[in-house]
Each structure stands twice: as structure tokens, then as C-alpha cells.
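Appendix B. One record, verbatim.
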Amino acid sequence: MALRKQLFAASAVVALTSVTSVANAQSAQADPSRSSASQAQVEELVVTGSRVARSRLETSAPVDVVTAEALTAQAMPEIAQALANLAPSFTYQRSTVADVTDSVRPAKLRGLSPDQTLVLLNGVRQHSASYLNTIGGARGSAVVDLNTIPALSLQSIEVLRDGAAAQYGSDAIAGVINLRLREASSGGGASFSSGYYDTEMKSAREPDGRHIRDGATYSAAAWQGFALGEGFLTVTGEYVKRNLANRAGLDPRVTPPRVTSRVGEAPLENKTIVLNAGLPVGNGWSVNGLTLIQERHSTSSNLVRLENNINNIDIRTGQVIVPGGFLPLNDTYVRDFTVGGGVKGDVFGGTFDANITYGSNLIKVNVLNSLNGTLGRASPRDFYAGRNFYDQLTIGANFARPFEMGLSRPVDLAMGAEYRKEGFEIGAGEPASYIVGPDLGGGRSAGSQGYTGYRPNDAVDASRDSYAVYAELNADLTDALIVQVAGRHENYSDFGATTNGKISTRFEITPQLALRATASTGFRAPSLQQQYFQTTASLFQLINGVSTQTEVRTFQVSDPSAIALGAKPLEPEKSVNISGGLVFRRDAFELTLDAYRIKIEDRIVLSETLNGSAPGTPGATATQLAIYRLVNTAGSSITYAGGRFFMNGVESTTRGVDLVVRYRFDTGIGRFDLTGAGNYNETTIDRVPATAVLSSLPAPPVLFGRANTLNFERGEPRYKIVLGADWKNDGPFSAGVRVNHYASVVAASNAPAGDRNAGEKSVIDAEGRWAVNSHTKFAVGASNLLDTYPNQIPPALDTAGRSPHVITAPWGRSGRYLYARIDLNW
């Protein structure tokens, strides 16, 4: 709690001054040696990945620039979905029935874990969500929630597809996403959209299909620029409301078969406000500020409990407690907050900037329409299950200066330092959400069904700090050859120090053709969530003929029971990135081709649940008995049946190729802008973890199983192709069409017979626009125009009718979405 008081005090000072740093990299000035054409296209200049602003095609590493216009011309107001539609190596899983992950959805770059991509807001590290994903493709990671940023608040997004830990620090193994806020001192705009799913859902149990209209979504967003002396204040507000889109199938366990589950887009309500400001204060100095606040409320689903579920049967009378059964719901509240301040100015022939930024994420979960099976009829139906909280304070200072060294242009030297303080908390839920009541037996579960509350012994209040220094050199050795060298040293209070380096080069063979290459080392520090997350679930085992309460626990790595199983303090993940490519441009034609190899050691993963059995348990094996002894050697009054813990040890290699092509031309009927992008990405697991203790058991248990391995290797499409065409004429009409083609992904099981393939599919989006005048534009469109679904699941693999289609699909599984939008500007 002391950490939070310090951070709120720091943020209060920042808020009073109303300033924040813009992107550290924005201290770099546009390169005067570049062509005027490049300088004129502001959106083509990028500052991510280098302290020198260069044209998008003149960087030494691949950078995608997504403009504000492209972001807002989307069916749904979600940044993560917009990037997935436009960037070749970016994927976004629309998860469902995955606890809080349904509300805080992870996204991935180059198929790596979502916490291996660094997210910046105006060039400053953005805080992660407090929730730790424990299921699904993001299992074991705490991610930055991109959807906290309204699309209308952004000027552009820069996606650096290259390792950059030597420049930006932890997490930048797969790349960097830099969200750049709009800067306007006048003018404004608004966008109002409405849409719904209109789909024909077919399945093995419903071959003729079922017509569904649901998931109505409404959004309203507006921005306004204000003059702040000679500076600017840009204010953006957004409101989004989404209704339920349910794609559950018919449940054959009830008569007549009917839909009993909820699978699909959860109901959601977002309220967001963003302020971004900058003010010159004289003598080449300026102050800058931003504030972002979002509140999100969503209601996701758990698995249905039918009327005859043991937790719904009164143990004394044998009567049903809730007629018809019940469907537990996770009612999730999320509050995300960012505030920061900074100064920038010219000093000693260079540019200096300093910044302080504070961010926090609070998640509270209530479980609705549920029961605690061990409380019987005395059980409440709604429960408060607890809270997660994460906050981060970042203080940075940077200095950049050009030096004349007789080369084709001055050599740019940048250096800086950063201090970061992080905190993580878990707060217990109400007692009814976790206690074991008197109605035991028959396999009843303690705690709220669907999502068990945190117990008092699950509570956490942890923190750490880190210090970093970096240096970067950018040199144009000749008019054709650019070299960039960077190094960074960081020291963390929990695991120690790490040093990383990077070298990049670009060689222009002709004005049309250039080659580029990069080699770097990187790291990702173990998150506080991975080090300190803990939770408990109650199970009942038959021991010596008696139904006995036992606990299965997710242990902290420092817990004595975890140590007995072989857990060790977590170390940072380490990577080696090598990439090379070419850039070709001729008139209106552009092509970039980049190949990469990312080798990662000591990846941090959540182990499988290691199940033990107490002496006297029927059928217990020697290994199960040994695990039981190991997890119950700490002298605790709680009896553990087993558990899981975080550990280093997975090694992987990711290889891939990115291709991006663009061509613009005029015809008699208008101007066409054609784009094509493709990514081939393959990850292989080279080694899985083991501990000496568990390896010595009679039948060593699996620590990282087949399903988790395949989530790394096949949980994202091996290849993705994006084809787009945008047409504009001199009149009021314009239109665009986009095709996203995905290789099949696998929803993996620990047994091959349980694997489910989503199938190789193409998804088409189309939009037509009518500019009524220079201030008003109407648009209508369809996302997933052809109503493409993942592959169907055979009834034998879906005995509950919950999921008639493969859940894992990068384009979602809700079908065709129709929408209309009004865009205004003034």
C-alpha cells in the first residue's frame, strides 16, 4: 500500500502541472538531408525504433505506419481488431468463456506471447493489465490492453517488427507498438456508429442453420482541439455499448434440445476520456501532458450447470435448488488510468527531455447467477470474488545531440536513464465466494461456481523497482550506408542486472533498392503477476472411504510447497533476434520483404497442474503419492492435493517472413490504392522444462504438456495474407474492400484425438462511403461479408452443445457484422 501512496502522490504532482512527455523518440528532429517529398508526408515519418525520424521506407528495421484514417474506417471501435485487420504479423484472438480474458483480450505480434511485445503511449512505456491469464493462448501472461485507447484519439500507430529491448527495455522481444496521440489546437470531429451481427449459423446438430440477429453495438466518439496559448489541448471522449452475441449450440442433454450456454461476444460498456496537451514556454522549451481514464463493465459467461448438477442439489432433501439450473456470469469492472508529465528543450547543442508517467489498472470481479455448492440453500446467488491491481511509475530523462564527424550528415548520439516502480495486489473476495460450507459430499465444490473468489491467504501486496541507462548512435557513414548501434543496461531489485545490444544497418544500392539487416539481444523481465500470483480451488477426494476436502493451488514460486516441487526464483527470458530484408520503390510502387529468426531461452510458463493423492486414496499411483508428500511438507494446516507454479525453461525458435506491397494509380474512374501484405511465421519448441525433484519420481509428471506446446506452435496461423483495395473519385463516393486469409490454427488437446482445427479461411470486409459535404460523411459496410465460421465440431466432441465451432479463430466466431457510421469534422 505504501507503493500506491507514493505513486498517487507523484501522479498528483503531474496532474497539477498538467504536463507529460511526448514520445522519447520525438525529441529527434526530421532529417534535413531527406527529400522534401518524405518531409511533406507527416504520417510517413516514424520515430519508433530510432532516435532519428526517418521515412517509413528509410528505416533500418521494418515499421508499419497505421494512420488515423485507416484506424477509424473499421467496423468495430477496437484498436486491437483494427491492427489485426491491417498489420501482417499482428493477430488478435476474440476469446470467449475465458474468465476475465473475455474483457481484457490479448494480442500477439509474430506469433509470440502477448507480453513479449512492448506497448508505448506517446513513446513512454504503457502499464499492463493487472489480470494474469491462466487459460487459453495467452496462458501465463499479463498483457497491455490496447483497447483502452480510443481510435479517434490517435494520430497514428507505429508497429516496429523487430526486437528492440536494447533501446526500450523489457518486453520488446517481438517488437514495439507505439500509439501516438492526436495533437490539435483547433478543429474537431466525431464518429457515430451502429451495427449488429446478421448471420446464418450452421452446425453438425443444426445443418439447416439458424438465423441470428444479435450483438448490437453502438459507439459515439468525439475530439476537439483547443488553443493553449501557442500550444494545444486535444480532448477525446468515447462511449461504446455492445450487447450479447451468443453462438452456443443446442444442448443435447436437455429435452427438447435448446441453447443453455453463452459463447461469443460478451456484453460490454466502455467510457473513456483522453487529454493530450503541449505548450511552448519560451527559449526552445515546452511542456506536455496527457491523461487517460477508462471504465469498462462487461459480463462474460462460464460453463452452464444443468438442473441435475451436484452443486444444485440440496444434500439433505435431494431437491433442486435452482429450477432449470444456472449459468454463472463474471461481472467484470475495469478501471484504467494514465497520467504523466514532462519537459523538452534545446540545451548544449542538443535536445533534452524528462518525463514522469503513472499508470494503473484495477479489475474487480463479481460472480452472478451462481451458487456455492457446499452452502446449499443458504448460498447467495451473487458473489464478490475479489480484485487485482497493478500500477507503474516511470521516470525518464533523455539527451540527443548531433555531432559533425565529416560524414554525409551529422552523427546522432542519444543517451538516457529510466527509473521504474511497479506494484501488484490481489484482494480477497467475500467469504461466501470461497468458504467450504457444511454441505459436503458427492463432489460438490466450495466457493462460487464458475469463478472461485480469492481467499485471504491468496492476498498479495508486492512491488519492485528497476534502473536503466541506454545509449544509441545513428550514423550515415555514406550517402548510401546507415548504421545504428544501441545498448541498454538495466538492474532490477528482484533478479539483478541484464545488458543488451543491437546493431542495424541499411544500404541503398540504387535510389530504388536498399538492403537492411539487424542483430540484437533482448529480454523480458518476469512480471510481478508471474512471481506473486496465487489462488486456491477446493476439491473433494475419497480418502480411506471418506470424502475429504483438499486444495489445488497455484503457488508463488517462493512458496515452500512450490520449492519442494522444484520451483526456483524466476529469471528473465532472453532472446537473440536476427533479421534481414530489402526495400524496393519505384514511383507509386513499394515493396518490403523481411525475414527473421527469434531464439528465446528461459521462457516463463505456468506448469501443468500436478495432481497428488493422499495415502488411502483408491487407485493412487506412487507418483501421485510422492507429489502429495512434496506439497504437504511445509507444516501448513492446509492440505494440498496438488498445484502448479511458474518456471523458466521453455526454449523456442521463431522463423518467419513479412512481405508488404503497395501500389497507387489513377484511372478515368478514380484513384486506386492497392495493398498486399503477407506473413509466414513458424514457432518450434526446442526444449521443455523439468525439475530434478520431479524427474526422479517413478513416473515423472509432465510439466509442460502437449496442449500448451501446440498453443505456442499452432495457436496462431502459420501464415496470414491481407489484400486491400481503396477507391476514391473526384465526386462524393469512395469504397474499400479487404480480404484477410488465415492458415488453420489448432485448438489443442493433450490427446491428438481432441485437437480441433479452425480451418484455412478467407474473411472479406467491405465498406462504401458517401461524402455529403466537406464536413459530413456516411459509411455502410460489412465485416465478414460472406459469413465465414471456423470449422464445425463433431457432436461426439461437443457433448454439451456448448461450442459447435472451434473456439480458436483469429477472426472470431460470431459471423457477419453489418454497420453504419457517420463521420463529422469541423
